[in-house]
């Protein structure tokens, strides 16, 4: 495992560079990320490059045995550039230009921006092409899907639509535009979602396509940058860093043309009191690994209390800095780069805490980081191992867009059910992959397919095939609801999945903030929230029936034998403890080994390969935990990770 830091030499006095690098070296830092926001110092005047300071920093780090990740500085063009090319600023939804002086406000399709970006990327990549210290390149910083509403972007959006549909008639048909007299008669009438209307007022088919275009647009830009880097450095290792932002690009598309994933990992420093709330970051880590089904990097890792876009949050409790980094490693991140070396002394982010506080006196958090660096060395041997999983959960960025466009009912959000299922499987010590619906299903024994909202015939076919061949599949409410254009399918739900689950939905009740109840055969009762599908079984058997409302006695959860396999259907959202119980039964039924008796939020992950097996047991809680695995008694301090390598 390799530990790094995000460092901003452009913001520190020159006299600090060597001192910082000495301390990095002593501490065991192996990699340093540089320059993602440094454009104004790299090109202080139009066409006048000033890279000497960056050469010097790289040299200082190299002399101390450290490697470097360089970033294309395209997130923040200098203000002299905007002065010359005012149109290159993004246009907001209300048609106004974004305010300058913050970051990420350039239009990624603007010709002037692209010309200047190309020139600096070309200069930078030529300069460092042969520098052996530069081991990877990061494109820009946390690029979001392109929600710019300028004329150039509108033009691009129309080109995207034309290439997908060829004619406006085809768009009208796909979107069902006859409603509210929304039929287009020319391409010019098609505009992005300007204005202050709440998104759910707009046609969901149109909105889904706009989200798809916005993602494709940023992916095109990312690939354009990757090509520029590869032109001068053919074997460059290229990434871009992502997080779960408001306008998320489709991660699967985003990384297809890049060499590795990097994720910015900021687990909460304040754990929720409500045990029903999902907070485990293992879910996001597994999702990131699943994007390429490969190891990944954390490009920014939690190092202290947060506080720049919001009031300051609680500081990291003892154990978090080390524990969350090791948790990332346990889930497949081989390099973990901490954000940031030292708190910024100036700028909007000065209250976002890094490893060292403004005083520049290394304290408790730094000591914990230093300890992590020591432990990381011992894990080198484990880097060549893999995380093999029998269980996969399907995650679809498009279903998530569709849920955001049309919130299903009060409190319901796309990620909740995948997270509940993930937390149930991890409670029994299983490795879990979170993968694309379009990924290969072979090799898995269980596939959880929650909320298969938009219907893709090929995905449906492969889920039937998987089950028929002996797999276990878990389908949930809000499946088979829409076609690929986000229009409702005129069949009883869950439409395409009806024969697979051996049941259909007679009607549904979006209970939102209200509560209903369900009952299992042994009489135990659990709460239902958000949604209740009232089921009618055909070939399925009933596992749970409702115990309240006018549908009391009707099926809520079912199980169906299909071919050599089994299909479960969960028609509601229920308590964590019931997901756990269901998953335990599913594992028993499928004859799969599992670890019993782990306390909530204690996670086991295993990495295997090359004759090595490593078992990670992480206490993702702020309390000491005692438990037994077989004859082994284990005690873990808050956020402690126990690692056994054999
Ligand atoms: C993101 C960004 C960083 C920084 C941190 C903390 O992850 O990539 O530049 O802004 O958030 O605010
Ligand atoms: Zn634009």
Structural description of this entry:
This protein has 646 residues and is α/β, with parallel strands linked by helices. The protein has 17 helices and 24 strands. A ten-stranded mixed β-sheet has the order 11-10-12-13-18-17-16-14-15-19, sandwiched between helices. Strands 5-4-3-2-1-9-8-7-6 form a nine-stranded parallel β-sheet. Strands 20-21-24 form a three-stranded antiparallel β-sheet, with helices on one face. A hairpin with a 2-residue loop joins β20 and β21 (612-619). The longest helix is centred in the middle third of the chain and has 29 residues, at 204-232. The two termini are 17 Å apart. 47% of the residues are buried. The mean pLDDT is 96. Zinc ion is lined by residues 90-91, 107, 109-110, 148, 150, 152-153.
């Amino acid at each position: 495992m390799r530990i790094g830091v995000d460092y901003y030499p452009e913001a520190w006095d020159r006299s600090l560079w060597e001192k910082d690098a000495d301390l990095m070296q002593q501490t065991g830092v192996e990699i340093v990320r540089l320059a993602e926001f440094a454009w104004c110092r790299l090109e202080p005047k139009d066409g006048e490059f000033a890279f000497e300071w960056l050469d010097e920093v790289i040299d200082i780090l190299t002399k101390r045995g450290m490697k470097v990740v360089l970033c294309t500085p395209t997130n923040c063009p200098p203000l002299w550039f905007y002065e010359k090319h005012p149109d290159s600023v993004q246009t907001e939804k209300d048609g106004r230009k974004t305010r300058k002086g913050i970051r990420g406000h350039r239009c990624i399709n603007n010709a002037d921006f692209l010309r200047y970006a190309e020139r600096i990327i070309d200069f930078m990549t030529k300069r460092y092409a042969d520098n052996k210290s530069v081991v990877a390149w990061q494109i820009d910083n946390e690029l979001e899907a392109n929600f710019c509403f300028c004329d150039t972007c509108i033009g691009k959006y129309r080109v995207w639509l034309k290439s997908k549909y060829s004619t406006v008639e085809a768009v009208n048909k796909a979107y069902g535009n006859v409603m509210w007299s929304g039929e287009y008669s020319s391409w010019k009438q098609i505009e992005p979602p300007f204005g202050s209307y709440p998104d759910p007022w707009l046609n969901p088919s149109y909105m889904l396509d706009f989200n798809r275009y916005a993602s494709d647009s940023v992916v095109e830009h990312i690939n354009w940058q990757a090509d520029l880097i590869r032109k001068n450095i053919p074997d460059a290792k290229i990434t871009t860093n992502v997080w779960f932002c408001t306008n998320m690009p489709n991660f699967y598309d985003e990384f297809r043309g890049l060499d590795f994933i990097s994720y910015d990992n900021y687990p909460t420093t304040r754990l929720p009191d409500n045990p029903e709330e999902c907070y485990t970051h293992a879910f996001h880590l597994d999702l990131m690994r699943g994007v390429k089904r490969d190891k990944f990097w954390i490009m920014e890792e939690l190092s202290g209390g947060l506080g720049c876009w919001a009031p300051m949050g609680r500081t990291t409790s003892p154990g978090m800095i080390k524990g969350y980094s090791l948790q990332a490693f346990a889930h497949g991140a081989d390099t973990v780069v901490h954000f940031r070396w030292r708190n910024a002394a100036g700028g909007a982010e000065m209250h976002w805490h890094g490893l060292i506080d403004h005083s520049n006196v290394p304290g408790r958090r730094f000591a914990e980081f230093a300890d992590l660096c020591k432990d990381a060395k011992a894990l080198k041997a484990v880097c060549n191992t893999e995380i093999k999983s029998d269980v996969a959960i399907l995650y679809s960025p498009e279903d998530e867009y569709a849920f955001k466009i049309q919130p299903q009912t009060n409190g319901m959000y796309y990620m909740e059910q995948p997270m509940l299922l993930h937390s149930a499987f991890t409670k029994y010590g299983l490795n879990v992959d979170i993968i694309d619906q379009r990924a290969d299903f072979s090799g898995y024994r269980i596939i959880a397919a929650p909320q298969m909202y938009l219907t893709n015939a090929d995905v449906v076919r492969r889920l039937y095939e998987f089950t028929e061949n002996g797999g276990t599949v878990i389908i949930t409410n809000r499946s088979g609801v829409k076609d690929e254009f986000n229009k409702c399918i005129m069949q009883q739900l869950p439409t395409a999945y009806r024969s697979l689950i051996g049941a259909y939905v007679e009607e549904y009740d979006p209970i939102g903030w209200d509560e209903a109840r369900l009952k299992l055969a042994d009489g135990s009762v659990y709460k239902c929230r958000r949604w209740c599908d009232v089921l009618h079984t055909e070939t399925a058997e009933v596992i749970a029936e409702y115990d309240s409302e006018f549908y009391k006695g009707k099926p809520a959860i079912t199980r169906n034998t299909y071919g050599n396999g089994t299909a479960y259907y969960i028609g509601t959202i229920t308590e964590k403890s019931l997901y756990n119980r269901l998953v335990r039964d599913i594992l028993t039924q499928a004859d799969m080994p599992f670890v019993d008796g782990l306390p909530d939020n204690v996670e086991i992950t295993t990495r295997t390969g090359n004759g090595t097996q490593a078992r990670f047991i992480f206490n993702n809680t702020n309390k000491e935990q005692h438990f037994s695995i077989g004859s082994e008694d284990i005690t873990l301090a808050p956020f402690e990770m126990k690692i056994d390598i054999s």
